[in-house]
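Hi R.,

As promised on Friday, here is the backbone we talked about, encoded as structure tokens. Could you run it through your design pipeline when you get a chance and send me back a sequence?
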């Protein structure tokens, strides 16, 4: 194990599980075709029908350009959405060291919809699943704002960011006229049950 990974995770059982995730996925990983195209299309259609997407205010001054829904713990317990629970279970099966705590659902259904440069600094691991039309994703160094790296997230793709990576980088989703896209930003902590 590298000193870099050892420094990121510390000691103890939770740290050992965190270390396993780092060794398996690194700080950032894009997995093209993580989900079969037919399965991702079915999930996309079901989410359009079942997830209550709406315009959301991020704070007092800023309304998000996309439609969104925050599927947090209270909603999961009081009003579970079966399609989201199935996707959460699929991620949990593939990555048993981590437990999804919250899902931020984004619907980009207009060419002007985008997510500007930001960080998701909640101290949690982040999995993003893409459904529908592809979108260009970029990330860059948070301090220097230089050297943006780009990739295309297609339907069925998953990308992962370790909390340390997110802390050092900004990321964004660009505008596109390729068609509608749903992304699920799934926040996860190291599981106590592994």
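Update: got your reply. Pasting your designed sequence below so it's all in one thread:
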């Amino acid at each position: 194990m590298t000193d870099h990974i050892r420094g990121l995770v510390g000691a103890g059982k939770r740290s050992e599980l965190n270390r396993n995730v780092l060794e398996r996925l690194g700080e950032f990983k894009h997995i093209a075709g993580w989900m079969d195209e037919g399965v991702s299309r079915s999930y996309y259609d079901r989410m359009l029908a079942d997830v209550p997407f709406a315009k959301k205010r991020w704070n007092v001054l800023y309304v998000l350009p996309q439609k969104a829904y925050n599927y947090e713990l209270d909603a999961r317990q009081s009003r579970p959405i079966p399609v989201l629970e199935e996707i959460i279970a699929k991620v949990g099966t593939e990555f048993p060291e981590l437990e999804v705590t919250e899902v931020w659902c984004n619907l980009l259904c207009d060419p002007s919809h985008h997510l500007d440069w930001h960080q998701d600094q909640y101290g949690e691991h982040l999995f993003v699943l893409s459904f529908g039309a592809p979108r260009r994703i970029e990330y860059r160094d948070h301090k220097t704002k230089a050297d943006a790296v780009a990739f295309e997230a297609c339907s069925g793709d998953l990308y992962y960011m370790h909390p340390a990576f997110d802390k050092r980088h900004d990321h964004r989703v660009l505008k596109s006229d390729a068609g509608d896209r749903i992304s699920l930003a799934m926040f996860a902590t190291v599981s106590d049950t592994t």
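One thing I noticed while checking it: Helices lie at 3-9, 13-25, 37-50, 73-78, 82-94, 163-168.

Thanks again,
M.
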